[in-house]
Design goal:
single chain; 331 residues; alpha+beta; Chorismate synthase, AroC fold; five-stranded antiparallel beta sheet; 8 helices; 27% helix
Amino acid sequence: MASNSFGNRLRITTFGESHGPALGVVIDGCPPGIPLAEAEFLPELARRRPGQGELTSARQEPDTPRILSGVFQGRTTGMPIAVVVENRDARPQDYDALQHAPRPGHADETYAAKYRHRDHRGGGRASGRETVARVLAGVVARKLLPAETRILAHAVQIGPHVARRFVPETIEQNPLRCADPEVAVVMAEYVRELKERFDSAGGVVEVLVQHPPANLGEPVFDKLKARLAHAVMSLGAVTGFSYGAGFGVATLRGQEYVSDRRHFGGMLGGISTGEDLRLQVGVKPSSSVGDVARRGRHDPCIVPRIIPVLEAMVALVLADLLLEARTLAAP
């Protein structure tokens, strides 16, 4: 099974399975001298980890990171950085009945057909637990971005309920990470009702990058939008990606489109303009429903826990392209 790595100048390789001993990441290409401590991973890991409330999986993982290499006396050395998180609350026996019974909507069927031998314990590498490694890498990537660059993701839709306001300071104050505090209450009740019926909800996330570096992205195949789409679509729960006006361009006339620069999403010709980047991401309902949900520990809505992962993947793309730009500019 190849393709466990992502990035060019800043290249990450993730490893580990949902119910194996541990998960982790090797980060290659980080410049030396960057301050980095294990405690700096904790806030982002806490945003992603399960067991945060009734609207997330009941799995209890402390997600305590351990730096194995690439950091000395509190600073990066320029060598590969390896960080690992041990699984403490794995229950592989919960999946014994699924060893020869693929779950609808999961990767079980295709993994078995392609590799002839698969890890059935919670999906192995196909589990959302794999994303803990991406969040670890995202913490390092953010350190390489300009201080003024801020990456902020929030739920704009859960099921039929759509946010109407943007109050960023309220995002972390509700379980679905919605920036509209009134709609967030309705969203939570909707997900709660679905959970009681062993069902699940999908949604849409907006990722906003404020004050991004300009001039990132390369023609023709490495446009910034292409790199971002690759990063976002590599997440198992993501089913759609757009930026700026997105699919709304279908209803716009050309003069309407060019009259508002927000329609461009912060990119022209696939290169960042320095204006805010606006991305929209479609997130599927969890496929663990019905009898599967009754037996296991699953999220009735993946949206709130994928938000820090999306931020991490965007940070990785921007940091990677920024290092590429610096290399090209070097005498």
